[in-house]
Automatic annotation (TrEMBL):
Pfam families linked to this entry: NnrS (PF05940)
Highest taxon of source: Bacteria
Residue intervals passing through the bilayer: 32-51, 71-91, 126-143, 155-173, 185-202, 230-247, 253-271, 283-303, 315-337, 349-368, 374-394
Protein name, as recorded: NnrS family protein
Keyword rRNA-binding: no
Length: 411
């Protein structure tokens, strides 16, 4: 036990000597998750009411475009900050963890970005652009250690974040009339970039979570997430994203979509270890479903493109956004919360339910074109069901975020 605790403290040798830091500001993920979960819960229910026709937002024009923007950029900035602020101090000894007042200010910046978004027709696009680009720019600056690392061990995450920053600049430039590119087309590119970022993050999350799980279970084996399969999936997604932007009506895009789905699904073969069987472990299943939903999204979009009689491309895209990306938020939040509050990675009825509800809501939303007579109900109920896991997270996990680490280590 003492050796295990000593190993954990290696990550905190450079923990700042700041006095009177409350537990909720003691490490990067804590305040982010505390504001992220309620925000997702409230905003998704609100969007469900909008798309079902129950309410409208009088102070926001072009509701669809801004909804997509917020669900992509608004959420991924918080997710990226939580991931990097938690992981980089471990990956690069000497990097000072983000805690206390500095952490509070960057979280406030994210919250201000969300407020400016909801009141964009009142406060103006410029303010929203400055706040949100400033937030993402600060994240990239924080991640510069990964990009500047001589060995380039984790530089891909930094480069993906930088690409996302330029795509967001491009989006705001289109909304402000500086470029003629369709803003909706830019958001499709952003979706591809976010999928790439998540695939890169999952490679590291898989290593940490599954090895932690096997150690707790006494399984004598090591899980290694090897780059080639992830790199093939990333290459396929990039090709699909570029071709969709340049040649959206080309039938070749359909085959690229099928190839992208197959490449992403192929990553799940890494869970089949030579010596031990781990496919019955809940967190392996949780992580596997992220790849399955992402793959299903690209499969269905490819199928749609190759079948002119089907017109559900953007509905099927929800298997990627609400499904794969949404489930990645939930699963990574669970893993980080358990492990980085000094607890063992645990599954229970609540974690099962959180994952299952995201999957159910994704199918309800993604299959709307097959049940158009119930479209309004599916919009509303799918958004409510999709948001319930975040309500469960608030109920079951906020107490961990508001308390010191269970093992007594700083953070």
């Amino acid at each position: 036990m003492e050796q295990e605790k000593l190993h954990a403290t290696n990550h905190y040798l450079y923990y700042p000597d700041e006095k009177n830091v409350p537990p909720y500001l003691a490490y990067g993920f804590r305040p982010i998750f505390l504001v992220f979960a309620p925000y997702v819960l409230i905003s998704m229910v609100l969007w469900g009411l909008v798309w079902s026709g129950a309410i409208n937002i009088p102070f926001m024009n072009d509701t669809l475009t801004w909804h997509i923007y917020e669900m992509l950029f608004g959420l991924i900035t918080a997710g990226t900050l939580a991931f990097l602020a938690t992981g980089l101090p471990e990956l690069f000894p000497g990097l000072i963890p983000l805690i206390g007042k500095k952490l509070k200010y960057i979280v406030i910046l994210w919250v201000l970005g969300r407020i400016s978004f909801w009141f964009i027709d009142i406060t103006g696009i410029y303010l929203t652009a400055v706040l949100n680009l400033g937030m993402l720019g600060w994240i990239i600056w924080f991640a510069r250690h990964a990009v500047l690392d001589r060995l380039q061990r984790h530089a891909s995450i930094g480069y993906a974040s930088l690409a996302l920053f330029f795509i967001e600049v491009w989006f705001f430039a289109s909304k402000l009339g500086f470029v003629n590119t369709d803003s909706f087309a830019i958001l499709k590119i952003a979706t591809g970039a976010i999928v790439v970022l998540i695939l890169l993050a999952l490679r590291r999350v898989n290593m940490e979570a599954i090895n932690e799980l096997m150690e707790d279970k006494g399984i004598d084996d090591v899980f290694l997430s090897r780059p080639p399969k992830t790199n093939l999936a990333i290459f396929s997604v990039i090709v699909f994203t570029i071709v969709e932007f340049l040649y959206p009506n080309n039938s070749a895009l359909g085959w690229i979509g099928l190839a992208s789905g197959a490449a992403i699904l192929g990553i799940t073969s890494e869970y089949k270890l030579e010596e031990k069987f781990i496919l019955n472990q809940p967190y392996v299943i949780y992580l596997g479903f992220i790849y399955i939903l992402l793959a299903l999204g690209y499969f269905l979009m490819g199928w749609d493109i190759l079948n002119p009689n089907i017109d559900a491309l953007n509905h099927f895209r929800h298997f990627i956004t609400a499904g794969g990306i949404g489930l990645s938020y939930v699963v990574i939040m669970l893993i980080i919360t358990w492990i980085h509050t000094g607890r063992h990675l645990t599954s229970n009825i609540y974690t099962h339910l959180m994952v299952a509800l995201i999957i159910i809501a994704t199918f309800m939303r993604g299959l709307v074109p097959f049940y158009e007579e119930y479209a309004s109900e599916l919009y509303l109920y799918s958004s409510i069901i999709w948001s319930i896991p975040f309500a469960i997270y608030i109920k079951e996990f906020f107490k961990f975020l508001l308390a010191p680490r269970a093992d007594g280590i700083k953070g």
